[in-house]
Design a protein that fits this description.
Length: 268
């Protein structure tokens, strides 16, 4: 039997604000992994944070993270970086609109030297950089560009919608990046053409898994390409309306074990 490759977003899909998956979710994934299927975290979080969450789900879970910029499959890590030109453009826009912006490497979070702005708990979870040992602050665009060989992706966060939308529109014009959103107050930033869907196709080709045997769960805009690329794209009950309109498969919300519910429905 050809196994299925199953890709799961983290925030709003596997965990809520508690950041702890339910036992029903953990048990369902363990059951269907034992049956031979392959499960992957597919998150916007940096690698070090995504691995922490993966370990809460089950041992040695494969990881797609940084919105597809980093893959860790069978202990092999591959990654894509933002260009120096992209970093300069993002820096200028972040400063122009005073929008709080962070960049990620595989093992750290890079903070621009900006005034602190209160952010939601959801945004803090997505940054996942509260461990001081993981945080690095840069004070100029030159310092930021010097880290280009390490930086995989970024996120800008602001509850000020007009300011955020203006910044997003300007970032979308930059030649070397793509922008999306995983929550109401953020802008997710990746290299041009790089997203969860790209990573999924890359991983499945590498592992010899046909796209007819792929499934994904998600709830936010940065999951759209993933959900519409796999054969079974499943919207969580708490997904936004754009996500729900884009797919043909649905499950219950995060508080009613949506991932576990659909897996039992599909496989049992």
């Amino acid at each position: 039997m050809t196994p299925y490759a199953i890709f799961m977003d983290i925030d709003g899909t596997l965990v809520d604000h508690s950041q702890i998956p339910t036992q029903a979710t953990v048990d369902a994934i363990a059951k269907f992994r034992k049956a031979g299927n392959l499960f992957f975290i597919a998150s916007g979080r940096p690698l070090f944070s995504a691995r922490v969450m993966a370990d809460r789900i089950g041992p040695n879970l494969n990881v797609i993270c940084s919105n597809g910029s980093v893959t860790a499959v069978d202990q092999q890590v591959d990654n894509i970086h933002l260009t120096s030109a992209a970093l300069r453009g993002i820096y200028d826009i972040a400063m122009k609109y005073e929008i709080r912006t962070h960049f990620f490497t595989k093992e750290s979070v890079i903070f621009l030297d900006q005034a602190s702005e209160p952010i939601s708990r959801d945004a803090k979870n997505r940054i996942a950089g509260e461990d001081p040992s993981k945080n690095r602050r840069v004070h100029s665009v030159e310092e930021l560009v010097a880290l280009a060989p390490e930086i995989t992706n970024g996120i800008s966060i602001s509850a000020d919608e007009p300011r955020r939308l203006q910044a997003k529109a300007e970032m979308a014009k930059l030649a070397d990046i793509d922008v999306s959103s995983s929550g109401f107050d953020n802008i997710e930033i990746t290299a041009k053409g790089i997203n969860k869907a790209w990573a999924i196709k890359h991983v499945c080709e590498k592992l010899g898994i046909p796209m007819t045997h792929t499934m994904a769960f998600g709830d936010g805009d940065n999951d759209l390409q993933m959900l519409t690329t796999v054969h079974y794209g499943v919207a969580m009950g708490n997904a936004n309306e754009r996500v729900k309109a884009a797919v043909h498969h649905f499950t219950t919300d995060i508080h009613h074990d949506g991932v576990a519910h659909y897996l039992h429905h599909f496989f049992d």
